[in-house]
Structure formats: structure tokens, C-alpha cells
Amino acid sequence: MMKRFRLFLFIIHGMVGIGALVGGGSCIMNPTSPLGAPSSLLEGSPFTSYLIPGIVLFVFLGIGNCLGALIVFRNSWLKGFAEGILGFGLTVWIIVQVIVIDTIAFPHIVFFCIGVLQSASAIILLLKEKATLCEHLSKLRSKIRKA
Questions:
Q1: What is the pLDDT of residues 106-124, one digit of tens each?
Q2: Burial of 145 per CB tally in 10 Å (0-12, 13-18, 19+)
Q3: 141: helix, coil or strand?
Q4: Rounded CA gap, 16 and 117, in Å?
Q5: DSSP 8-state assignment for residue 3
Q6: Is the pTM of this model over 0.90?
Q7: What is the widest separation between alpha-carbon atoms in the chain?
Q8: Residue 45: CA atoms inside 13 Å, Cβ hemisphere, count?
Q9: What DSSP assignment string belongs to 39-79?
């Protein structure tokens, strides 16, 4: 059961990560109209171009989810924390994006649900492992002292 769950999370991280790398990369390479998005969507926002949002998208959600996929694949004790951080980050990203562009499209709903799913997965993983941040930090501290 957990192997299938981990495979599912790996696929989700991979899809979100690759999509964010492509979207963020497009915003970085063409900050005035990435993938055909008009700059008029940014009116009323603190941004005059898609460059800063593109960098955040590329780094946090793109590279972050690719690292999250690796963490899940390796079955690291960090997977619950990675799920929580990345799921919460994706959820916040979508909420802010919808507020800034003042519209909701189908992909917003899909990625919001994925963010909530990742966050819920974090709770499941952390409860399953009966792990707390303090326990993991204590283990890490012990490893560092032994080295």
C-alpha cells in the first residue's frame, strides 16, 4: 500500500515540478508574454512583468517538486515534511495567483486540489511514521556528533 502511495506522490511531484519548470522558465525567458499570457493580467499587481513570479515558480515549485520527487523516491524521512511544505506552497501560490489575475481557470482548480492533496499526504506520512520535527532533528544531531 505505501509503495503505491509513494509512487503516486512521486508522479505528482514530477508532474508539478516539470510543469513549474516549463512555466517558470517561460516567464524568465519571455517576461512580457510567457506562453501567450498577456501582461494585462498583471495590472493592479506589484509586478510589471512575469520575471519575478517566474523565478519563484521555477525555483520553489519547479526545483522544489523535483527534489520532492527524489525525496519520495529515496523514501527519506524528510518526505512528510517535503509534502507539507510543497503542498502548502502550491496552495498559497494558486490562491495568490487567482487574487492577482482576478480570474479562476480550470488549471487553478486542479493545482489547488493537488496542493491540498500534498498537504493531506504530509499529515498521513507524518502520522504513519509517528515522526515529529524534534525527533528527526535529534537523530540528525546524533549523526553529526558521531561523525
A1: 999 999 999 999 999 998 8
A2: exposed
A3: helix
A4: 12
A5: H
A6: no
A7: 57
A8: 18
A9: GGGGTTSS-SSSHHHHHHIIIIIIIHHHHHHHHHHTT-TTH
